[in-house]
Design brief:
- This protein has 250 residues and is an alpha/beta fold.
- The protein contains nine helices and ten strands.
- Strands 6-7-8-3-9-10 form a six-stranded mixed β-sheet, sandwiched between helices. Strands 2-1-4-5 form a four-stranded antiparallel β-sheet, with helices on one face.
- Helix 3 packs across helix 4, helix 3 runs parallel beside helix 5 and helix 4 packs across helix 5.
- The model has no long low-confidence stretch (mean pLDDT 94).
- Bound molecules: adenosine-5'-diphosphate and magnesium ion.
Length: 250
């Protein structure tokens, strides 16, 4: 799954990241590399800074200190740079945020046309290809409200993939779903991982972490407190905070 090798250049590289909201320090010296093809699962208690970390990667939040490099391109907040970098990063949130007045296919076509300048024909053909991949090609001309939450989230994943991102970020993509709909979304994510997509996934689904992660990163109190293989981190956490977090999960 992982194309990681000592010589590979990280696709995402974060160094000395500090993020403050006013006087409140939310990230305090985070270093993180994500290598091409790697699946990194980010876990940790609520308020640890996981969402903020993801939002910093695609520039939705501005870092206070440190540097972020995406595929060798340093993230600055100049409009040209941030748009170029954002177009290389797909993001999937807890809430699916599909446009309710547009069909499923149109939702997936819009940014392809506006941002990538693809023709309607090209954009639709890519949309159908991706809908097929997430098992929803028969829903292309349906409206989001007629879909279940799990189906809507699969459409949101297809919409992010339509931009041909270098890396996909997921922020608790199954947390808003009824339990019986979680599996179909995780299944799509596992297939993406197997196909070699570079992914950073914030989730509380420990089975997903165990099965799909190349590396589990545990955050607590504004910092990365532990990282390693799923087995290392989930079964033999070495830090006190890691042990405490995992104890309260079981
Ligand atoms: P997690 O995703 O791990 O639960 P978050 O990154 O959402 O954690 O939040 C980390 C901390 O940052 C929390 O204390 C939260 O209240 C604070 N925070 C997040 N976003 C903002 C914001 N826009 N303004 C002020 N504080 C924020
Ligand atoms: Mg969060």
């Amino acid at each position: 799954m992982s194309a990681q090798s000592p010589s590979a250049q990280p696709l995402v590289s974060m160094r000395g990241i500090v993020k403050r909201f006013g006087d409140n320090v939310v990230l305090d010296g985070v270093d993180l590399d994500v290598f091409p093809g790697e699946v990194v699962v980010l876990i940790g208690p609520s308020g640890a800074g996981k969402s903020t970390l993801l939002r910093c990667i695609n520039g939705l939040e501005r870092i206070s200190e440190g540097t972020i490099t995406i595929d060798g391109d340093e993230l600055t907040y100049a409009e040209g740079t941030i748009n170029r970098i954002r177009s290389r990063i797909g993001m999937v949130f807890q809430s699916f945020n599909l446009f309710p007045h547009m069909t499923v296919a149109s939702n997936i076509m819009m940014a392809q046309r506006d941002v990538l300048g693809r023709s309607a024909k090209e954009a639709r053909s890519r949309a159908l290809e991706l809908l097929d991949r997430v098992g929803l090609v028969d829903k292309a001309d349906a409206y989001p409200e007629s879909l279940s939450g799990g189906q809507q989230q699969r459409v949101a994943i297809a919409r992010a993939l339509a931009m041909d991102p270098a890396v996909m970020l997921f922020d608790e993509p199954t947390s808003a779903l009824d339990p019986e709909l979680v599996g179909e979304v995780l299944h799509v994510m596992r297939e993406l991982a197997t196909a070699g997509m570079t992914m950073v996934v914030v989730t509380h689904e420990m089975r997903f972490a165990r099965r799909a992660a190349d590396r589990v990163v545990l955050m607590a109190d504004r910092q990365i407190v532990e990282q390693g293989t799923p087995k290392e981190v989930l079964e033999h956490p070495s830090s006190e905070r890691g042990q405490a977090f995992l104890r309260q999960l079981s």
